[in-house]
Design a protein that fits this description.
Elements (H helix, E strand, L loop, with lengths): L1 E3 L3 E2 L7 H4 L3 H8 L9 E5 L4 E6 L1 H9 L4 E3 L1 E2 L5 H15 L4 H15 L3 H8 L3 H12 L3 H9 L4 H7 L5 H12 L8 H10 L5 H19 L12 H17 L7 H26 L9 H8 L1
Parallel strand pairs: 2-4, 3-6
Antiparallel strand pairs: 1-5, 3-4
Helix pairs in contact: 4-5, 5-7, 7-9, 11-12, 12-13
Length: about 300
């Protein structure tokens, strides 16, 4: 039902103090991410003269900020404490993009308070059991200092929940280092973690090299290539060689390179870059049927 915005108040126990402290452009920026379909659930207070928010504070603040007089709400006065917590968990996950460490702690606190399994929590909130497990593993299994890295954004949620599956905090830190330092992207984290779990004593640098080389080799095998022409460039060999070079370049940041070698490599790569750019330009401007560069083809046609 429609309720006057001015008759609604935030729950002091759940009030978003961060939003309360913002005004003007700062508030608009924060509220711009609120979905328009976010429900507002309230319960009556003061004998029905006002309504306290159960969930939907941000949606209510959007309405207030935009000068709306009324907002669509669902009145639910008979909610138990457990039902309120479940609604708030759903709101945090689906509508507020709560930081992953905070979300994991919220799941654990709720389940410990009410003795609920991950499967039952999933049924009550619509959040999958696997998702709940991944968030909770950040709190239960991940080294505390790596948890801080996740909270600060130095490790992504994907990286953190994958690394949390590795036994031993010291080993977790070794696996996390190339992702924290930026040497590797999260694209590789699941393969590296899987390799580390199968080879718990193998040095991390060797795992990284094995995974990166294996990824490039797998790409070569899976990639469908056009048969090479009988004369000229062997296209299959060219593609395979390019992938080999790409794999070596991925490993380059893992090496300690003397200064004199560094300068030689830079010079060589600049030559390679020039040749690659020339080949890309040729391929981009070549007629697909005749094989004649487009500018020459137009001259012949004239």
């Amino acid at each position: 039902m429609l309720i006057p915005v001015g008759q609604i108040v935030a729950d002091p126990a759940q009030q978003d103090r961060q939003l309360e402290s913002k005004t003007g452009p700062d508030l608009r920026k924060v509220l711009s991410n609120v979905g328009t379909n976010q429900p507002v659930v309230v319960r009556q207070t003061n004998g029905g003269s006002s309504f306290m928010i159960v969930v939907g504070e941000r949606r209510w603040r959007v309405a207030s900020f935009e000068g709306q007089r009324e907002i669509e709400c669902e009145i639910r006065d008979a909610l138990s404490e457990q039902e309120v917590r479940e609604l708030q968990l759903s709101e945090s996950y689906y509508h507020e993009s709560v930081p992953s460490m905070k979300m994991g702690k919220a799941f654990l606190d709720y389940r410990e308070s009410f003795g609920i399994s991950q499967q039952e929590l999933a049924r009550r909130t619509g959040i999958t059991p696997g998702t709940i497990h991944h968030y909770e593993s950040l709190v239960r299994n991940l080294a505390p200092d790596l948890g801080e890295r996740v909270a600060s954004g130095e490790l992504t949620f994907k990286e953190g929940r994958s690394i949390a599956d590795i036994d031993g905090h010291d080993r977790q830190r070794e696996i996390a280092e190339p992702f924290i330092s930026g040497r590797l992207s999260s694209v590789y984290v699941e393969k590296i973690v899987g390799h580390a779990k199968k080879n718990p004593t193998k040095p991390v640098e060797q795992i990284l090299e094995d995974v990166l080389r294996g990824t490039k080799a797998e790409e070569r095998v899976q990639k469908e290539v056009t048969p090479a022409p009988k004369v000229g460039v062997d296209i299959s060999k060219l593609e395979a060689g390019a992938l080999d070079i790409a794999g070596e370049l991925d490993l380059l940041p893992l090496q300690v390179i003397p200064e004199y070698r560094r300068l030689n490599i830079i010079s060589t790569l600049r030559i390679l870059d020039s040749k690659v750019q020339g080949a890309i330009t040729f391929l981009s401007t070549t007629h697909p049927r005749t094989g004649i560069p487009q500018p020459l083809l137009k001259a012949v046609e004239k």
